[in-house]
Amino acid sequence: MQTAGIAPHWQPDLHSYAHESAPVPTLNRLRTEDPVHWSRHGYWYLTRHADVAAVLKDAATFSSAGAGWGDTNPLAKSGGAEGASTEQKISKSIAQSFNQMDAPDHTRVRRLVQAAFSRRSVEDRRDRIAAVIDTLLSEAAAKGSFDLVTEFAFHLPIIVASEIIGIPIDDRDQFRISLANAEMLMAPRKDDESWQAALAAGRWIGNYLRDLIAQRRAEPRADLISDLIAAEEQDMKLNDAELRSAISTIYTAAGTTTERMISSGIFLLLSHPEQWRMLAEDRTRIPGALDEILRFHHPTQSTSTNRRCVRDVELGGRTLRAGDTVRVGLGAANRDPAVFNDPDSFDITRRSASSILSFGQGPHFCIGASLARFEAQLAIEAVVGRFPDLRLVTTAPEKDPARPDRYREIIVAVP
Question: Under CATH, which number does the domain 17-413 receive?
Answer without folding.
Answer: 1.10.630.10
